[in-house]
Write a structure and sequence with these properties.
single chain; alpha/beta; Immunoglobulin-like; TIM Barrel; 3 domains; five-stranded antiparallel sheet; 16 helices; 20% helix; elongated
């Protein structure tokens, strides 16, 4: 068989497999290995047809060029070297390894004892795992050359969604496309997004991932996808015809509809798990380069992720792997930005987190990556793990303090009015110290992690029994409330209050300074039955139902109405915090009597009513926003309009609200309701 191929030394760049001349160049980083091999497989992926020794080069890079060979060729790596787990060395030539730079994979992953380095414990495994691991696949895709929306942050409205769960039950999308990348770019789903003002979708992980063995043993799956197998390959279950170009086609079609694509990426850990995890790729190439270990204990992983291992971003080749992956998804696949899961890890060295960490500095000067949208989840479970507000420009950050205080406000908690005001106006106390503005805050009420919006107002306790952990998993501090009954209720008053409270949350979110993020299903009252950690629920618990009652839902229309108001007023697009000497914008806070709030009002523990005006002096337009979290209605005197026009009610969370205002007459603000008045209704109508 080897006589069919011509084998030459090969090039050290680029890493991975790449077409070169009439064959394929293979390049692999494994500096501590004594020998590396490329193993070719037949089209079935079952039979190994060629094993070729690679050549060592400067910097610990192995290379080989094999011709003739073309796209579609299946391969893997085997690496010889010292197997000494106590010293963090896990070389085992019996384990076929996935190329960290593989752009495509072939075949299914199956859990078996063959993937483990020691079997039984303490004895080096000599079992070949090739039958149970996907093969790397040679591919070649041209750069993305289509026009991108390039929306400013001030225009951005994010819709966080799951590739499968969002469309797998959509009745108007063809069965073959449901739950696939191409389902998200189908005209019916795009029309849905456009119908209520979405400008960007943020996809839960789409890098190739696998389910953890402890889940498969319980008959469950990793549904969310935060268990990465490879940083370059699209998850194959989301493809229709096993063609990775389908991802690129999805991006192109969404861009044509003026919708951006942001990826939720997991560069903090991998599916190789902890000390007793499998050897699938990085562990078998250079375990100590790719993963953090306890100082003087190279056999013990640092677990700042809670998932067993932690990527060693301080190592140059690990940093290169992450950056090369990011550039690939931008330049070749066409995406517009990234949300980094547990992003604190990417800014932490041995000395702790630093906003000047090499990774963050490299991103800032990279001519490709510094132009895309960058969002951090600014926390992990490691030392100094909570870093909200500490990321440098141009990063945006998930603002969980916004989430929690707004939830507490509408729940009826007392003593938080001053904090609510800070969150409404962009969280200046969090971002202004580092010369950042309100648009650095990604505001959200719910996300994939936690209760859905409908469940937030229907459950006071989590109900995660289906996860198989005796309801111990998931957050317990949810600041949720059930409006009078736990779970599903046929009581019309409870149902009406729940709908009104969902509108309260949505109106607050959309009319807060910052970038709003809406979790998929919020627009149609999607429920997970009280499960607030549905990471392993690849079933109707998580999938959007798209029932007749959910199509063109009143919440969808409400979001659209609120976003029209947001788009019509420049205060929400302003990139700096408003202050008392702002030449264009004025913010004033009022009591229910229409008087200006004083320091004593801000410190009233029982105050659950907020009213404030936003004046745009340049456009001569004003808004008056009223939030009443009290369980009783409040008689309210609206303050005088700051321009020569009377207040008119333009939106309310109260169903079929109708309120005629007269300057001198008080108005009745319903219990647990929100209201928006405008002194220039025409602008709102044209929003």
């Amino acid at each position: 068989m080897s006589n069919q191929f011509e084998v030459t030394h090969g090039l050290v760049e680029p890493l991975g497999s790449s077409l070169h001349l009439n064959g394929v160049n293979f390049s692999l980083y494994a500096p501590k290995a004594t020998q590396a091999y490329v193993c070719l497989f037949d089209k079935s992926g079952h039979s190994e047809i060629l094993k070729v020794a690679m050549n060592i080069n400067e910097g610990g890079i192995w290379s080989i060029h094999i011709a003739p060979l073309n796209t579609g060729a299946l391969y893997g790596f085997r690496v010889e070297g010292e197997y000494n787990p106590d010293n963090g060395l896990l070389f085992n030539e019996h384990k076929l390894l996935i190329d960290p730079y593989a752009k495509d994979l072939f075949g299914e992953f199956t859990w078996s004892e063959r993937h483990y380095g020691q079997m039984p414990i303490g004895t080096k495994s000599t079992v070949n795992n090739a039958i149970d691991i996907p093969k790397s696949k040679v591919s070649s895709i041209d750069s993305y050359e289509h026009k991108k929306p390039n929306h400013r942050w001030s225009k951005t409205v994010i819709y966080e969604c799951h590739v499968k769960g969002t469309t797998c039950r959509h009745p108007k999308i063809p069965k073959t496309l449901q739950g696939k990348f191409l389902g998200l770019s189908h005209p019916h789903f795009i029309d849905h997004l456009k119908s209520f003002g979405v400008t960007a979708i943020e996809l839960l992980p789409v890098h190739a991932f696998i389910s953890e063995q402890f889940l498969t043993g319980k008959g469950l799956q990793n549904y969310w996808g935060y268990n990465t197998l490879n940083f370059f390959t699209p998850h194959k279950d989301y493809l229709v015809n096993d063609d990775i170009n389908e991802f690129k086609q999805m991006v192109k079609e969404l861009h044509a509809a003026d919708i951006e694509v942001i990826l939720d990426v997991v560069y903090n850990h991998t599916a190789e798990a902890g000390n007793d995890g499998p050897i699938l790729s990085l562990r078998g190439l250079d375990n100590l380069a790719y993963y953090r270990t306890v100082e003087a204990q190279p056999n013990v992983y640092i677990n700042d992720t809670g998932c067993g291992n932690t990527i060693n971003i301080d190592h140059p080749k690990t940093l290169q792997l992450v950056l090369d992956s990011l550039r690939y998804w931008v330049e070749v696949m066409g995406v517009d930005g990234f949300r980094f899961d547990l992003a604190t890890i990417l800014g932490r060295s041995k000395a702790g987190f630093s906003s000047a960490h090499t990774f963050l500095q490299t991103i800032a000067q990279d001519p490709v990556l510094n132009k895309v949208k960058l969002i951090s989840e600014p926390w992990d479970i490691g030392p100094g793990g909570y870093q909200l507000g500490a990321f440098p420009p141009p990063w945006r950050e998930w603002n969980d303090q916004y989430r929690d205080v707004i939830r507490r406000f509408w729940k009826g908690d007392e003593g938080i009015i001053a904090n609510v005001a800070k969150r409404l106006h962009g969280s200046f106390d969090i971002f202004e110290h580092s010369h950042r503005g309100p648009l650095n805050s990604i505001n959200f009420i719910t996300s994939h992690d936690g209760f859905t919006l409908a469940d937030l107002v229907s459950y006071e306790h989590k109900h995660n029994e289906a996860n198989g952990e005796n309801n111990r998993d998931g957050h317990s501090a949810n600041y949720s409330f059930n409006c009078g009954a736990e779970g599903f209720s046929t009581d019309e008053k409870i149902a009406a209050l729940r709908l009104q409270q969902q509108k309260n949350f949505l109106l607050t979110l959309i009319l807060s300074k910052g970038v709003p993020m809406i979790a998929a299903g919020s627009e149609m009252a999607h429920s997970q039955g009280g499960n607030n950690n549905a990471y392993c629920q690849n079933n109707r618990t998580s999938w959007l139902a798209w029932k007749d009652s959910q199509l063109n839902h009143s919440l969808t229309r409400f979001i659209d109405d609120a976003l029209k108001i947001r788009r019509a007023h420049s205060a929400f697009k302003h990139s700096v915090f408003l202050d008392d000497i702002d030449e264009r914008f004025t913010v004033k806070w009022f009591t229910e009597t229409g008087d200006t709030m004083t320091d004593s009002h801000w410190h009233e523990n029982s105050r659950q009513f907020l009213m404030y005006s936003l004046l745009d002096k340049q456009n001569k337009h004003a808004l008056l926003i009223v939030f009443n979290a009290n369980k009783k209605s409040v008689s309210c005197q609206l303050p005088p309009s700051p321009i020569n026009a009377q207040w008119q009610m333009v939106l309310s969370s109260v169903n079929n609200a109708s309120l005629t205002t007269h300057q001198d007459a008080p108005v009745e603000i319903s219990a647990q309701s929100s209201w928006v008045f405008s002194a220039n209704l025409e602008d709102v109508a044209n929003g």
